[in-house]
Amino acid sequence: MFTRLVLVMLLLLSAASVSAQEVRLDVLADGVLVFGVVSHADGSPAGNLPVQIALNSNPQAPLASVQTDAVGIFSWTGAAQTDYQVRAGDTTARVTTGEAPPQPFQWPPIYITLGALLLLSLIPARLLRRPEVR
After folding, report:
1. Domain residue ranges in the chain
2. pLDDT tens-digit profile of 64-103?
3. Which of 82, 48, 79 is nearest to 65 (CA)?
4. C-alpha angle 90/94/97, rounded to 5°?
5. Which residues of the chain have pLDDT under 50?
6. Side-chain half-sphere exposure of 34, counting CA atoms within 13 A
7. CATH classification code of 2-96
8. What is the C-alpha separation between 121 and 110, in angstroms, rounded?
């Protein structure tokens, strides 16, 4: 009876230590940015914990390894419209990135801009030189 009680106590103690080490992983994607929060089972932040990121098609070969900051947040920039698998401890999550952000507006080369402005300046010049019909 005593050995059975000791065995039950050891099992409960080992189960408590395992659940204390489990982590919760919340992952989101905003465009090509993958970010997430890692916390312990009790809700406390899992700071300085390694996070592996791999393609969903090949999860055995990690693409990158990042580390959470002091409050359990990590971020990583991936490729557009790609499925990733994110792993922290024994917890795994899947995320799909969205479209890449649009390229910023760039002016055309200066000679095209100046040429267009020169052509536009001919309109008022022609209107001012036209003789009035009486």
Report:
1. 2-96
2. 999 999 999 999 999 999 999 999 988 999 999 998 878 8
3. 48
4. 140
5. 5-8, 10, 14-20
6. 29
7. 2.60.40.10
8. 16
